UniProtKB/TrEMBL annotation:
Secretion signal span: 1-25
Gene name linked to the record: LOC123041132
The organism of origin for this protein: Triticum aestivum
Family annotation (PROSITE patterns): MULTICOPPER_OXIDASE1, MULTICOPPER_OXIDASE2
Name of the molecule in the record: Laccase
Entry's Gene Ontology BP terms: lignin catabolic process
Subcellular locations according to the entry: Secreted, Extracellular space, Apoplast
Cellular component terms per the entry's GO annotation: apoplast
Reactions listed under catalytic activity: 4 hydroquinone + O2 = 4 benzosemiquinone + 2 H2O
Cofactor(s) this protein requires: Cu cation
Length: 576
């Protein structure tokens, strides 16, 4: 079944708006049916068959209120195995519904179904869902809108309209074939051909002017843009020409509002921003543009720019006129691709609200301290083979504390719950690098990483401080790290090597931003704190899909408490 190149994004926005209007009840059970199906989509002058949910690209918006129970029946009608992850949902005691393949569940096989069953507890804002197996999230993703409890207002001006804005990446080629080839050769996968806004590449790409996301606004009105970076491998700058953006929430947590012309959003991250239209009809249109941030050399990332168009309703027109191409069209001035200064300036402004209604429960003391190196590395080529890695005798790899996680053939959570972990995983993940070096200086001669399936065990309710340090092995790079099952507070960050004596004296323990995905600065470090109050096995990984594929991932095992215990697995849990 074909999908019109123009239809999906406006339909998704319309459906999201309708859902926002009809969600009236409080703390109820909401049922969704997600059918994983193939669909033909045309972009960049070419058609291809892609994996979708309900033949929508992007997929349907899931709307709930804080406190609601959500049941999503996922039925797999495609040849690929499938899992879905509800990115940012805490999944308190419901780790079976978290979604990462071979971590909390075996994949849903062709012709099989699985019901994801979870309750939205203590969260409100914008999150998102996506496939969590191989690179299928390239086309399998959608937004999650969590409304506040009934009668509870936003802690900012009520918007005239709320609009999901999802950034994605598009490949002309089949991404599953692309990543399979890269794994065979040990090289880097081909970069994407375009970025998209709500599935549409827009006018800056060849023959794509008709596939442009357009947002029509009324003069003087305020709009809430629910931004989601669903791109696989690129952090993105975002700006709207001649307009400002007021940041009011990130990763479904309210922040102290601040206003910028340009913002940064990493893969996995979400942000709610207020855009106030000009008070009078401006007789012009304006690009809404996004382009990548990267400190690696050009040519190894998609350096193109995606644009949607902000257009104004003409109050003198009696009809809802179509797009007026004769009006002036203004473009924003985006930063250089490697503008780390802008990134640092933006992230340093993020602060939790820290009010009585929305407190920042930052752990003031810690029970467990960990230091992780985050970065790239190599693995030797197979015997009698030639590779396309950094050299023809090596293949690309990535690791945390020099351990490149190998996923097992069964689910880690099920192995833990049934007490059958022998031969599946070890409980000896290193709490710090086994060999220390000048992390941001000259790389060591030996860049090989170790492989293994090791978990880091935490007692229930432990307070944790984790410092993540970028390394210069194969070049410094920003890494957006996502922690499943928890939010955390970003208490500090800096450049160079972390100083365990002096850097903690500058930690913000009053109102640090609370997130589920944070960028480890290129050539720097970030410190986070969280409370391990959610029993289960929880994935943590770089949200640059290429790095996750290479092994930049690990998992925490949080033990049961005396009373709050992990719930037993559902009867329809997928089998390997």
């Amino acid at each position: 079944m074909a999908i019109s190149s123009r239809l999906p994004a406006p339909c998704s926005v319309l459906m999201a708006t309708l859902m926002l209007l009809i969600v009236q009840a409080q703390s109820i059970t909401r049922h969704y049916d997600f059918n994983v199906q193939m669909a033909n989509v045309t972009r960049l002058c070419a058609s291809k068959s892609i994996v979708t949910v309900n033949r929508e690209y992007p997929g349907p918006t899931l709307v709930a209120r804080e406190g609601d129970r959500v049941l999503v029946r996922v039925t797999n009608h495609v040849a690929h195995n499938m899992t879905l992850h509800w990115h940012g949902i805490r999944q308190l005691r419901s780790g079976w519904a978290d979604g990462p393949a071979y971590v909390t569940q075996c994949p849903i096989q062709t012709g099989q179904s699985y019901v994801y069953n979870f309750t939205v507890t203590g969260q409100r804002g914008t999150l998102w869902w996506h496939a969590h197996i191989s690179w299928l999230r390239a086309t399998v993703y959608g937004s999650i809108v969590i409304l506040p409890e009934l009668g509870v207002p936003y802690p900012f001006v009520a918007p005239h309209k709320e609009v999901p804005v999802l950034f994605g990446e598009w490949w002309r080629a089949d991404t599953e074939a692309l990543v399979s080839q890269a794994l065979r050769t040990g090289g880097a996968p081909n970069i994407s051909d375009a970025f998209t806004i709500n599935g549409l590449p827009g006018p800056l790409y060849n023959c794509s002017a008709k596939d442009t996301f357009k947002l029509k606004v009324e003069p003087g009105k305020t709009y809430l843009l629910r931004l989601i970076n669903a791109a696989l491998n690129d952090e993105l700058f975002f700006s709207v020409a001649n307009h400002t953006l007021t940041i009011v929430e990130v990763d479904a947590v309210y922040v102290k509002p601040f206003t910028v012309k340009t913002m940064i959003i990493s893969p996995g991250q979400t942000a709610n921003v207020l855009l106030t239209a000009k008070p009078f009809y401006p007789k012009a249109n304006f690009y809404m543009s996004a382009a990548p941030y990267s400190v690696i050399r050009p040519g190894t990332f998609d350096s193109t720019t995606v644009a949607g168009i902000l257009e104004y309703h003409n109050p003198r027109s009696a009809f809802e006129s179509s797009f007026d191409k004769d009006l002036p069209l203004f473009r924003p001035t985006l930063p250089r691709f490697n503008d780390t200064g802008l990134v640092t300036n933006f992230t340093s402004k993020l602060r939790s609200l820290a009010t009585p209604q929305y407190p920042a429960a930052v752990p003031q003391s810690v029970d467990k301290q960990f230091f992780f190196t985050i970065g790239l590395g190599t693995r030797p080529c197979p015997v009698n083979a030639t590779c396309e890695g950094p050299t023809n005798t090596t293949q690309f790899a990535a690791a945390i504390n020099n351990i490149s996680l190998v996923l097992p053939s069964t689910a880690l959570l099920q192995s833990h719950f049934t007490g059958k972990s022998r031969g599946v995983y070890g409980s000896n993940f290193p709490v710090m690098p086994l060999s220390q070096f000048n992390y941001t200086g000259v790389s060591p001669n030996n860049t090989n990483v170790a492989t293994g399936t090791k978990l880091l065990v935490l007692p229930f309710n432990a307070t944790v401080e984790l410092v993540m340090q970028d390394t210069s092995i194969l070049g410094i790079e920003s890494h957006p790290l996502h922690l499943h099952g928890f939010n955390f507070f970003v208490v500090g960050q800096g450049f160079g090597n972390y100083d365990p004596v002096n850097d903690p004296t500058r930690f913000n323990l009053v109102d640090p931003v609370e997130r589920n995905t944070v960028g480890v600065p290129a050539g720097g470090w970030v410190a986070i704190r969280f409370l391990a109050d959610n029993p289960g096995v929880w994935f943590m990984h770089c949200h640059l899909e290429v790095h996750t594929t290479w092994g930049l991932r690990m998992a925490w095992l949080v033990l049961d408490g005396s009373l709050p215990k992990l719930l037993p697995p559902p009867s329809d849990l997928s089998k390997c």
